[in-house]
Amino acid sequence: GAGVSQSPSNKVTEKGKDVELRCDPISGHTALYWYRQSLGQGLEFLIYFQGNSAPDKSGLPSDRFSAERTGGSVSTLTIQRTQQEDSAVYLCASSLVNNEQFFGPGTRLTVL
Amino acid sequence: GENVEQHPSTLSVQEGDSAVIKCTYSDSASNYFPWYKQELGKGPQLIIDIRSNVGEKKDQRIAVTLNKTAKHFSLHITETQPEDSAVYFCAASQGGNEKLTFGTGTRLTIIP
Questions:
Q1: Of B46, B102, B104, the CB nearest to A102
Q2: Cβ contact, residue pair A95, B89, below 8 Å
Q3: Which of B8, B37, B56, B60 is the most buried (most CB within 10 A)?
Q4: What is the DSSP string of B22-78?
């Protein structure tokens, strides 16, 4: 079946602009996660959704970052007033049970 | 919070030989330990995982061992092939739908 999809695959923006990144999880997966991967680094947790609620937002680096999930499905990660240090690959994962997280291909964000 | 360390950061192995990647974790409450393989330009792919109620798990050429007392776990790849070349990440979590804490990755290169 279809895996996790993310859009856009690449996003180039200017410093100070807002961006929205989208994640479509595997159908029926109740849990959804956002991670960030900076060049040559491991994955850094940002936020976790169970249904439409976000029980763990502890990884969001600043109040410029926010995320929502609607209908227990699609999620959007928004970064306001982007900075150059926001440049990274943003990865989304979804999970049904037992924490087996399946990742999408990521969105590569470049802030000029 | 949890801290996962991973070694080595790079590993070159002759085709047909074995490769071993090691990780340590800090939080004794962690009980789920997945390994992911990431190819260039793609999202991480789950290749094997282990839960704390077992000490070893094997899937064809891939095996994972867990030592809960010492808080370390290892990935073993036997009879390596060129397609095994990728970046491998270990991770740990407290199970359920808790976030994953990742190691910093190992770039594995298989030399033909």
A1: B46
A2: no
A3: B37
A4: EEEE--TT--EEEEEEE-TTS--EEEEEEETT-SEEEETTEEEEEETTTTEEEEEE-
